[in-house]
Amino acid sequence: MEATTFVLFGATGDLARRKIYPALYNLFLDHKLHHSFSVIGLGRREVADEAFQAMVERSIRDFSRREVNDSASVRGFLKAFRYNVLDVGHTEDYLKLLQRVEQLEADMGGSPNRMFYLSVGPEFFEPIALNIKESGLGAAKGWKRLVIEKPFGHDLQSAQELNLKLSEAFTEDEIFRIDHYLGKPMVQELDVFQQTNPVLHALWNNRYIANVQITAGETVGVEERAGYYDHVGALRDMFQNHMLQLLMMLAIRLPKDSTADEVRFKKKEVMESLEPLEEADVQFNVIRGQYTAGTIEGKPALGYTAEPGIPADSQNDTFIAARLQIDDPFWKGVPFYIRTGKRMKEKSTRIVIEFKEPLKQNSSAAEDDIPNLLVFEISPNEGITLQLKARDPQHKGKFKAMHIDFHTSSIEVPEAYENLIYDALHGDPSFFAHWNEVELSWKWVQPILNAFAKNSVPLYHYAAGTFGPAESDQLLAENGHHWWLDS
Ligand code: NAD
């Protein structure tokens, strides 16, 4: 990687402090940043460079996955950080920023690159991109790139409009849309694991797989984000982006040593093969849920509509479960069940693949409860477990579940943001959402948004601290399946 200026909008925000600075620090420790790498943090308040560096130091002390105890390397890291005042709407601030960037670049020499990272609310994406273009900031000597966070649009139309605006200032190749689930090591492992292990590769199709279950459960409620969340809900906040990305990553079949373009082309194909849902069919394939009062980890929890800032008559979805079908030769007939929600029993993101059991009808009911499962634990634990059925040596004639386990320690493994920032700096878009994927995801979700807006599907309730409404279990029972690992 050549000398690069990392221009960070929203430098005083939560995401920057919790994720971006710690990620940069760990990349620095691993010698993965160029020696002429510099960061210009931007915010509305006047902050001196030294005060900004002190804030970055606090952030890495609080949030870095590795201990911060070597003061020489901390000083070396902080040297790269500068701060500039910038209000998103003030055109003259961009011109001052350009002067500062050019000063830094003059010191670097060569043809430095510019990476613009937008860690700000989505309402600012468009004005920032256009101001970058008009101020001349976009005319880098080397490459220029734009990194943006979710949410990308509020529905299909707003996403299309936003993309059109961004494309006036940046080409698709220059836009890196972060979906931080794609940076998680286990998610990056999904296709490789299947592709490089002939045992799994041979089984990865509708002949052997009964169904796929993707769960992302949170135990927290709306926290301080009531105003935001009540207009968004689980469908927009989690399902349209993270959950559909997990489905794509699991379902793609890639040739060996695929390029980034091939990865993204294959993901697009998966989305194009998803059987579309008509608005009238939403009620049969999607479960909309909202939590009521309950108990989480032994403590009482309020119901959603009793949370501060949430209207008493809110119909917002805090839980979604859906049944999806991919109409291609590998997956036809294999239901993909996806669920995500707040105030669930367990904080966990995982994918469970249930294998078919051809001899099932010959075995006893108890044995039927021990399926062959392949489990990808994505967060907070990271690991892979294969559950097989084996003879129980202590009870003659009986069977038990045998587990082959592999788990990693979170200290050793780079965080999602480390992987993603590194890839963006190196121009590798494999694990970023291409516009095609974003648009197709919104297209698939739009009939559900319409049905929810019209209130034409039921809103089911579930007690906080459970795995969602009973109707979500029913969705699987209709196909003779049930959610595994709910305990
Ligand atoms: P935040 O509210 O903590 O920070 C927003 C930043 O924007 C602050 O630095 C603020 O000073 C700056 N800002 C606001 N108005 C501005 C203006 N007019 N001019 C210049 N700067 C301005 O938000 P956050 O949690 O850091 O999230 C940033 C973005 O990342 C949001 O789009 C959010 O949806 C997304 N995101 C956040 C997380 C997370 O974990 N926090 C996760 C995924 C996505």
UniProtKB/TrEMBL annotation:
This is Glucose-6-phosphate 1-dehydrogenase. Its EC number is 1.1.1.49. It holds the Pfam family G6PD_C. The active site is at H242 (proton acceptor). It catalyses: D-glucose 6-phosphate + NADP(+) = 6-phospho-D-glucono-1,5-lactone + NADPH + H(+). NADP(+) binds at G10, A11, T12, G13, D14, L15, A16, R17, R44, D87, V88, K150. It comes from Paenibacillus riograndensis. Catalyzes the oxidation of glucose 6-phosphate to 6-phosphogluconolactone.
